[in-house]
Amino acid sequence: MELLIQRAKGYGGSVVLPEGQDPRVMKAAAEIARRGFARVSVLATPAEAQQACAAAGVIPSGFEIIDPTAPPCFEELVAAYYRKRASKGLTEEQARAAMKNRLYVGAIMIETGYASGMVAGSIASTPDMLRAAFHCVGTAPGIKTASSCFLLRLKTPTIAGESTLLFADCGVNPNPTAEQLAEIAMSTAQTHRALIGTPPRVAMLSFSTRGSAKHELVDKVAKATQIAKGLAAKFDPEMVVDGELQTDAAIVPHVAQQKAPDSPLKGAANILVFPDLQAGN
Asked: Three-state SS for 256?
C-alpha cells in the first residue's frame, strides 16, 4: 500500500468523493489529506458535511467541501455534460436536471479536468456509478469495452512470490465475448503497470488448461488468448499472456509444470482474467 501511496504522491492528482453524507467518506477524505497523496473534493451540503464530520470525529480541514446542489462551476458542468450527450438526444434541460445527481456532478468534474478520478460506492449501487461514468466520461481512446478490476494485496505471497494480484472483470461485463475478454486483459494490464509498475503477466482463466476439456466456453477463452497475445505484441511487448488455464496452473509453479509445462507464465501470473462475472465472483 505504501508503494501505491508514493506513486500517487508523484502523480499529484485530485479525487472527488461524491457521497459526503457518509461519515466514512469524510473520514477517508481527512486521511487522504493527512497523508497528502491527492487533493480531495467532497460533495456534501453544509448540513450533510456538519453531520458526517461530527459522526466521523474529523475536522474538515485540508480538503474541499463542495455543495452539490450549488457547485461554483455549475454552469460549466451543465454545458460540458450537454456537449457530451447532445448527439445522443440529450437536451440542455435534461443536462441541467442530471447535475442534481451528485454522481454525475463528480463524474463530469473528471471530464472537465476539475478532478483526476472519483471514488464512490459507499452508498450508490454499482449500476448507478457505471451509468454516471459511461455518460460523463466514457472509455479511454481505443477502448470499446469498459471493465473493472480488483486489486488484492496478499498478506502471504503466492508460491511464485507475487504479493499483488489483479482480478478482472468482476463487476461490469456479465458474459464477455472473446474480443471483449482480450480488451479486458489489455486494460487490466495497463492498470497493473500504472499501479504496480511491473510487467503484467496475464492468465486467461477457464475450467480447462490447454485443451484438457472440450467445450464452446473453453474455445471462447482460447480465442481471447490469441487475440490478447496479438494486442500485447503490438502495444506491450513485455506483457505475457497465456491461456486457457485453470487457476492453479496460473499461480502455482509446480502445478503449472505438470499441467502446462510450456506456459510462459510458469505459474507466476499477477493478473487473472475470469471468463464471466459468475466465475469472477
From this structure: helix
Calculate mean pLDDT across residues 160-184.
95
Q: How far apart are the C-alpha atoms of 272 and 167, rounded to whole Å?
A: 5
**H-state helical runs in the chain:** 2-11, 23-35, 46-56, 74-85, 92-98, 102-111, 126-136, 178-195, 216-235, 247-251, 253-259, 277-280
Q: Are 162 and 268 in contact (CB under 8 A)?
A: yes
pLDDT at 91: 96
How confident is the model over 27-31, as a mean pLDDT? 97
Q: Which domains does the chain have, with CATH numbers?
A: 10-136 (3.40.50.10950), 149-280 (3.40.50.10750)
Q: Tell me the whole-structure pTM to 2 decimals.
A: 0.86
Q: For the chain, what is the mean pLDDT? A: 94
Question: Contact, 242 vs 264, CB < 8 A?
Answer: yes
